[in-house]
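Lecture notes, unit on protein representations.

Consider one protein chain, 351 amino acids long.
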Amino acid sequence: MKGRYNFFILILIAKLMATSISYAQTSQSNDFGLVYQNAITQNKLGEINIQAVKYKLNGIDIAANVYTPAGFDPTKSYAAIVVAHPNGGVKEQVAGLYAQHLAEMGYVSIAADAAFQGASGGLPRNVDKPANRVEDIRGMADFISTFKGVNAQEIGLLGICGGGGYAIKAAQTDKRFKAVATLSMFNSGIVRKNGFMNSGLATIQQRLQQASEARALEASGGEVKYVSNVKITDEDAAKMPFDLYREGHEYYNKTHAHPNSTFRYTMSSLLDLMAFDAASNMELIDQPLLMMAGSKADSYYMTDSAFHLATGTSQKELFLIPNATHIQTYYVPEYVDKATNKLKEFFGKYL
């Protein structure tokens, strides 16, 4: 009886693994390096196409993908949407998935790797400073507003996870963005300072000291120190106390892994990150605002806090995706469909 029970458990695990893997498309099987489900594999006349582009931002080469709608005609006028990727993510993962869905709705969309990250330039690698990430978003707007066929007066913004926090910060002052949406917003500075769900309050000063020493070491020409620069095993992930991190390991390291995606960032970046709050000055947002999160997301507290601080706009909506966790909004078809349908309604109304 015990042997039969173990056999059924093994079958169940195999099915779960197959289901998980089916959500992804490996970069090796995709000429564009895309790792999300149902990604475009080649450009075809009359269908959604991808243009891999590069442009300069403050002297750094930025690598981006521009998605154009089916039947795109550069002599016509299209609204465009900038998509900002999560912390540690790259344009070939969830940002690309949503950019592709936005193109299906008829928008020109752009997803770019942040400066110092992914396929973009910048040294040392994996610098993760808030000012840079906000500037990345503005840089995407710069580029896409001059893209042939785009109406520069009709630009929207979607930020996912950490990109969501940087999106609301960018939108506070950059009024080129006529409508702003976030998905599973993550307030990077607050989490880097206080820890996720305030789990790191006791070590704030210790980590600031480490960041200061890392900055001094860099200035003297020494080694660049990194945070989260270790390989996480399944056993390590299973011991993590939060769904976000356990499921993040599964997504980033297994089912949707990409060689340019990494959790690490320079320790000296903490000097900037720990003084940053994406939700400060939320009253400056006067554009229409949509903030989406999974109803079971342990990161929801960040979306809720920022949303209620957005007192400068009456055109705002908080949309909960039933039963979804943070990471599940990145790839599970049921939850992605709910999010994209809401984005279609939102951007359709305001762009």
